[in-house]
Amino acid sequence: MNTKGHVVVIGKRVGAGCFELTGAGRPTRIVPTTRVTAHVRDLLERGRGEKVLADFEGDDATFVRRAFLDVCGRLPTPAEVQTFVDDAATDKRDRLIDRLLESSEYADFFAAKWNAVLRNRRQDDNFKRGSIALHAWIRESLYHNKPFDQFVGELLASSGEATSNPPVVWYRQVRESHEQVEDAAQLFLGMRLQCARCHHHPFEKWSQQDYYGLAAFFSRVGRKPGSRPGEERIVHQRGEASATHPKTGKPIKPAPLDGAPLELTSDDDPRQALADWLAQPDNPFFAPALVNRYWKHFFGRALVEPEDDMRVTNPPTNPALLDALARSFIESGYDAKKLARTICLSNVYRLSAIPNAQNADDQRGARGDHDPSLPPSKNARRAKARQHSNHQAGQHCHMAGALPNTYTW
C-alpha cells in the first residue's frame, strides 16, 4: 500500500476513548485518548504533511523512562519501571504523569531550568543570600503551581529586598533599562528586540518607538542600599514614567507592543501595568512564548526555533498547534502543570522514536545536538538521554554560582 502523505495507523477503536494498536510483531495495546490529545495529534499530523509521524506507539518501558527524564530529570529505578510495566490499568500513563507533576522532583528539576534562564548567579559571597532566596522562590512557585502570569508579574514588578521579596534578585542581573527590556521580551514574549534599540528591526516590524515604549515601563526603577553590605533594595520612584527616543529626543510613554500608550499617574508603578498587559487573554505573545519553550523541553525542538526568536519572518512549523496550545494555556489560568500534562498525554508524545520509511530522511534533530547520521527522533532523544547528567551539573553550577548566561532550555 502506498502510504505517502498519510499517517500510518495500525489498529481499531475498541470503545469510548480507547484505541487498540495491533500489527505484525507488535503487542496489542489499549490506549486511552481524550479530546485534547486527539486535537494535538490532528493538528500536528496536518502540519507535518508528507513527513509523517512514526506509525506505532512506544512501549511502556519507553514511556516511563521518557516521562521520568522529562518531568523529573532522572531515570526511573528498575523497580519503578517494573511496577509501571506490570500495571494493567488503561489509565496508568495518566496517573504516572499526574504523580510526577505533583512530586518534589518536578519542582526541583524545573526550578533548576528557570534558575538558569533567569541567570541567578552568585558572583561573590554578598550574592549568596539572594541567590538562595530566589531559587527557593522559583521552586516553591513551581511546586505549588503558581499561575505563570502571577509568577512573571511578581518578578517584573518586584520591590524590596531579597529576604522579604526574592524576585527582586532578577534586577541584580539586569541593572540597566535596556537589559530589563531585552531580558523581559526574550524570556516572556519570545522576542529579540536588541536591534530595535538603535534602528528599525531588520527582520520584524518593531521600531525604536516600540522598543522605548517598553523601556518606559522600567523607567521608574530605583535602587537603595540594602540591610547588608553588597545588597540593595529595589524601589519604585514616584514620577512620570517615560523613555527618551534617542533620535528625536521626545519622551515616550509606556506602551505595550502593538498597543496604545498607557495613561499612568505618578504614583502608578509602570511595571505592574506591564505585568497586567502580559496576563491579558488577548495578548498574542505571552502564552505562545511559554508554550513554545515547554514544547521544546518535551520534544527537543520548539515549534519556533530558536525558542526565544518568535517573529513574523520566523513562523512556527505548525501555527495551528501553537495557537491551540496557547489558547488552552490561557483558558486554564496559565496553569503550567496542565500544559505539561496536555503535552505528555498527547498521542504524539506516546509515539515511538523509531523512524519509519516516511520520516527516515528527515534530519532535523534537537538544536545543538544534531548528528546527520541519525534520524530526527534519535537526534532529539539523544539530548534527553543526557538530561539527568546535565541536571546534576546544573545543580552544582547553582551551588558554585556559575550558571551560564543563557535564555534557552
List the helices and strands in order. Answer: EEEHHHHHHHHHHEEEEHHHHHHH
Secondary-structure content class: mainly alpha
Proportion of residues in β-strands: 5-15%
Main β-sheet, spatial strand arrangement = 1-2-3
Gross geometry:
globular
**Ends: how far apart?**
41 Å
* Tally of helical runs: 17
User: Helical proportion?
Assistant: 40-55%
Sheet of most strands: 3 strands, antiparallel
Q: Enumerate the spans where pLDDT stays under 50 for 5 or more consecutive residues.
A: 1-34, 49-54, 365-383, 385-407
Q: What's the total number of strands?
A: 7
Spatial extent as radius of gyration: 23 Å
* Average pLDDT reading: 81
Architecture overview:
With 409 residues, the chain is mainly alpha-helical. It is 44% helix and 7% strand. The protein has 17 helices and 7 strands. The protein has helices at residues 35-48, 60-72, 78-86, 92-101, 104-117, 128-143, 148-156, 170-173, 177-188, 208-215, 270-278, 286-299, 319-331, 336-344, 347-350, 376-385, 387-400; strands at 11-15, 18-21, 29-32, 221-225, 232-236, 243-244, 251-252. The strands form 3 sheets. The protein has a 3-stranded antiparallel β-sheet with strand order 1-2-3, with no helix packed on it. Strands 4-5 form a two-stranded antiparallel sheet. The model is unreliable at 1-34, 49-54, 365-383 and 385-407 (pLDDT under 50).
